[in-house]
TrEMBL record:
Protein name listed in UniProt: Uncharacterized protein
Lineage top rank: taxon: Eukaryota
Organism: Cyclocybe aegerita
Length: 133
């Protein structure tokens, strides 16, 4: 499957789950999207989705607000959890999900755990790895 256009950056989300911010039950209402292309907006601070794409219980019967999002990308064995905002209309009338680069990268920064470093690398390149023992 090809992205909608080759001129703007789209990323493929294998699964995206949006849940309510107010329902604290064990099984809150969800809107699930699978195998969707999302715009990777390098200028956006946060992510956005159209209100009409969400179940009314997920959005608490409001036209705009915030929800929680868990996103999984193909070939990445990690789910990223962050906020997503819903609006009745998105810029330029777009209907696809917009992923805010700043929020995603900030969230990734705190979720990714480095793999073990080969001790030989730390001996050969001590400045690159700091004072690893």
């Amino acid at each position: 499957m090809l992205p909608p256009t080759s001129y703007i950056p789209f990323v493929f989300a294998s699964r995206l789950i949006v849940t309510s911010t107010t329902d604290m039950s064990d099984e809150p209402p969800k809107s699930i999207f699978e195998n969707v292309w999302c715009l990777w907006d390098s200028g956006a601070q946060t992510s956005f989705i159209l209100t009409s794409n969400l179940n009314s219980t997920v959005r608490d019967n409001r036209d705009e607000g915030s929800a929680l999002m868990d996103i999984t990308f193909s070939d990445v064995n990690q789910t990223i959890a962050l906020a997503i905002h819903f609006r009745p209309q998105l810029p330029n009338g777009v209907t696809f999900i917009i992923l805010g680069q700043h929020a995603l990268l900030n969230r990734l920064q705190y979720q990714i755990r480095p793999v073990s470093i080969n001790p030989q690398f730390s001996q050969e390149f001590p400045s690159a790895y700091g004072q690893l023992k």
